[in-house]
Amino acid sequence: MAGDVMTVLGMILILLGLVFFIVEMIGVFRFKYVLNRMHAAAIGDTLGIGIVLLGLILIEGISFTSLKIGLVILFLWLASPVSSHLISRLEITVGEAEGNYEKIEIKEEEK
Predict the structure, then answer these.
(1) For burial by CB atoms within 10 Å, which of 60, 64, 106, 107 has the most?
(2) Do residues 52 and 65 lie in contact, with contact meaning Cβ atoms separated by under 8 Å?
(3) pLDDT (tens digit per residue) in 27-65
(4) 70 CB contacts (<8 Å, ≥6 apart)?
(5) pTM for the complete prediction?
(6) What is the pLDDT of residue 96?
(7) Residue 37 to residue 35: CA distance in whole angstroms
């Protein structure tokens, strides 16, 4: 009985994660500027993948596989925002966004 409830909750979480992926795809295709698209993609990836993997953990139950999936969630939650921030910083530095955003100067720290 408890296994059936966990399986149903896991399936609901997987479907919720897929909804986040669909919203992410709509945002990526509908937004005009690169930075807006990146924001939609980063939020969708972080939430969508996290929720889908949590659903898989519920379906699997407590095991070594669940621990590995949890470590993947942790890595993705740390890596996805950092990588999207670095790519958006490169976009501003290169100047592709001129006319759409205020130009900023990025100064390197002295050692």
Answers:
(1) 60
(2) no
(3) 888 888 878 888 888 888 888 889 999 999 999 888 899
(4) 53, 57
(5) 0.72
(6) 58
(7) 5
